[in-house]
Amino acid sequence: MNTQEIKLDFPSDILLSLNETESELKKNIKISFALRQYRLQKLTIGKAAQVSGLSRYEFENLLAENNIPISNLTIDDVLNDSQKLK
Prior knowledge:
By secondary structure, the protein is mainly alpha-helical. The chain has one domain (14-85). It has helices at 14-18, 22-39, 45-52, 56-65, 75-85. Helix 2 (22-39) packs antiparallel against helix 3 (45-52). The termini are far apart.
């Protein structure tokens, strides 16, 4: 998988304030970004899981823990699909 590095600048005492290591902060930023982009429907669940560094199963569990629907289908979508199958 090709990756691109993005550099973010934070105040020098942020790790101390958050009581996190640099790697923990990076992981949390990636997960937060992935959750937000999935919620905004900018990333599929698979791509969001990839960005977060989690497996699809782990990401789906994270969605459930944060009360974010795993599917974006509406009742109308389901009804329309069922009509097409008839």
